[in-house]
Design a protein that fits this description.
The structure is a single chain. α3 (about 40-60) packs antiparallel against α4 (about 65-85) and α4 packs across α5 (about 90-95). It is globular, with a radius of gyration of 15 Å. It is built from six helices and no strands. The longest helix has 23 residues, at about 100-124. It is an all-alpha fold.
């Protein structure tokens, strides 16, 4: 299951990172719409909480290796979903302080390649 999770995360992170970098996805617009629209905030919170719970169900591992990063992302998504749902003002305040989209794109793409490398190294 670990390799499957890594492959899925690699594909998502690389694709979204490249899409943000190329400008085909505008993170600022998405952020503004989620802050303004209660229904989108509900969907984002539920998805974040759900994905966080699923990741933690498979990867609540606290060893100093690649799985720790997956665990931290799972906790971040789960807690982010809770904050989005229960504390919308805190979510709005935090969302407005996120880094520039190009920085996010580079970090996401880099994490995607790291996850892909980890998946390949575990497959061999």
């Amino acid at each position: 299951m670990s390799v499957l999770v890594l492959k899925i995360m690699a594909a998502i992170y690389i694709t979204v990172g490249v899409a943000v970098w190329s400008g085909s996805i505008d993170l600022k617009k998405i952020r503004e719409r989620i802050i303004e629209d209660e229904a989108l905030r509900l969907i984002a919170g539920v998805i974040g909480l759900t994905v966080g719970i699923v990741l933690l169900s498979y990867h609540n591992v606290w060893h100093w290796e690649w799985s720790l990063l997956v665990t931290l992302i799972g906790w971040g998504m789960g807690l982010g979903g809770i904050v989005t749902l229960l504390f919308p003002k805190l979510f709005s305040h935090t969302a407005q302080k996120l880094p520039a989209p190009k920085v996010t794109a580079v970090v996401m793409t880099g994490l995607g390649f790291f996850f892909g490398y980890a998946a390949l190294s575990l497959s061999v």
